[in-house]
Amino acid sequence: MAIPIRVKVNGQVEALEVAPDESLLSMLRERLDLTGAKEGCNEGECGACVVLLDGKAVNACLVLAAEADGHEVTTIEGLGRPGALHPLQKAFLAHQAVQCGFCTPGMIMTALSLLLENPAPTEEEVRTAISGNLCRCTGYRQILDAVQAAAQEMRAGAQGRRP
Amino acid sequence: MQERLDYRKAHSVEEALTLFQDLPRSRYMAGGTDLLPRARGSGQAPSRLVDIKGIPELSRIEELPSGDLRIGAAVSVAAVAAHPTVRQRFSALSLCASALGSYPLRNRATVVGNICNASPCADTAAALLCLDATVLCVGPAGPRRIPIHEFFVGPGQTSLASGELALAVEIPAASAGGRAELGRLSRRQGVDIATVAVLLSVLPQRSPRHRVALLSVAPTPRRASEAETLLDQRGPSAANAAAEAAMAAARPIDDVRGTAAYRREMVGVLLTRAVRALGAA
Fold first, then answer.
1. Taking CB atoms and an 8 Å cutoff, what residues of chain A touch B9?
2. Domain containing B223 — which CATH number?
């Protein structure tokens, strides 16, 4: 029994028919070809599938596609594009915070959610925020540095835009 | 999950109750962060999930004229942890809500969902037990209020009747203004459930003033009332005696996270540390 939904994904409204037991993660990956969010554990332990739902980080494996009806989803694909990367993406590259890359989309979306609600987090606050995102290459130091660098750039950017 | 799983979103409390009753093995769903992985893993998937997040009155945190605080069943753990009133007046709840799961999980999980799952390790249950909360619910037989002390029946079991929907949890104004200390051990600092946890809360307006709640050491979250009495009578100097009393109140089991003996020992250690931390504050 398919459920009709309308969900805004990376700024574009999608009208889909989803299965009742289909996760938001499956919907993004299988129906919309947005494979940035990864399936690691499928039970909310690893954070590889984190996306923004109405601007807040959630584990896409623990949300049903049907629950996203009427809501707004942002994935890593919605952040930047080659040549116009988001400050977090730029900072992850500059600080070599990416090794195998599997955790990276979830890390960046978690960090983005944090920076949207707290533009100047302490290192402890960043550590708390990403504690639900596992990196098995253990590049946490570089990730912490990248998030702080991106926070600084985003704050500077926000100030620059003010008249 | 089963192929025949049915998902329905309720827009009013009445609609939720009706949707629940239409099919056997229905479950109310708030955040879904516990329900969905369990439904996938168990082979005992509910036949219908009734999503209550579309019911406007369940999405609010309200300060009532009495000074009581009402937290709707669809309010996220993150929203509760960050709420100014919770942080200022009911810090035990802010502390426990911040310890639950991970940051993305707290954005989705709800406090009322956490207690309805009735896990022995339910983080927010420790605070709600210490704060003398009340669960507001409604079912086919009408509305009722369940004191939190009567809410937990066993692992995964509450005193909610079949079809009864928990609408909110209320914290009385008289529980405001205290201090709290949470000792919580887990295999991994973020995400993992508590292997054992002890919450000590000191509430100036209540009797007993000292409140001790234990997690993951009994079939349900529970208070250690003898330890509380000792701390009320003799203050921080009763730390060791209170630790003994709390250990005696624990009914732990061996499992993958720790042995019963370890858990009982840690109840004493964590309570002693909490007494020291609050005593010195």
1. 66-67, 69
2. 3.30.390.50
